[in-house]
Amino acid sequence: MTMTTTGLTNLDRAINTLHIWLSALEDELRFEDRAQTYRALEATLCSLRDQLTIEQSAHLSAQLPLIVRGAFFNGWQPSRVPVNDRSLEGFLDHVRQGLEHGPGSEKVDPLRVTRAVFGVLQEFIAPGLIEKIRGGLHGSIAAVWPNPSEDSEGRQHLH
């Protein structure tokens, strides 16, 4: 059920979908701070975006919640993707930098955050696109994704 916040159907739906995504991520990470959860989502998505080709980023962004799509493209420089450092360490350093803007961020494990965000993507993004994205990543980063066979059968594609 969509909550009415703005009186604009598409925007209310986008806000509701964002709440669903953040709740799923909070459940996985056990965060109690919604802002920290949003930073975790944004930092991981931006790190992922920089590993992808422009075409892959466009396809992924089309399946993201409207509000998350804005965060996904924030600071994006298409002429610099995919980044040269395609290692898991480089990916996690980028996530860590995105998490540094809040209290308690020094205690947050970027690998744990990355796994949780990838799990949310696995749950809400079309399986065919997930496989294309995983296939385009360096093996060490792709290995962080949940195993599709462990995925729940009650997949919801919300965006």
Tell me what the structure shows.
With 159 residues, the protein is mostly helical. It has a single domain, classed as Uncharacterized conserved protein DUF2267 (Globin-like), CATH 1.10.490.110. Helices cover 60% and strands 0% of the residues. The protein is built from eight helices and no strands. The C terminus is likely disordered.
Topology:
Blueprint: H1 9-29, H2 34-49, H3 54-62, H4 66-73, H5 88-99, H6 110-124, H7 127-136, H8 139-142
Helix pairs in contact: 1-2, 1-6, 2-4, 2-5, 2-6, 5-6
Q: What would CATH call the class?
A: Mainly Alpha
Tell me the fraction of residues in β-strands, as a range: under 5%
CATH architecture: Orthogonal Bundle
Radius of gyration: 15 Å
Question: Can you describe this structure in just a few lines?
Answer:
This is DUF2267 domain-containing protein. The chain contains eight helices and no strands. The protein has helices spanning 9-29, 34-49, 54-62, 66-73, 88-99, 110-124, 127-136, 139-142.
Key features of this structure:
mainly alpha; 0% strand; Globin-like; DUF2267; DUF2267 domain-containing protein; globular; 159 residues; disordered C terminus; DUF2267_sf
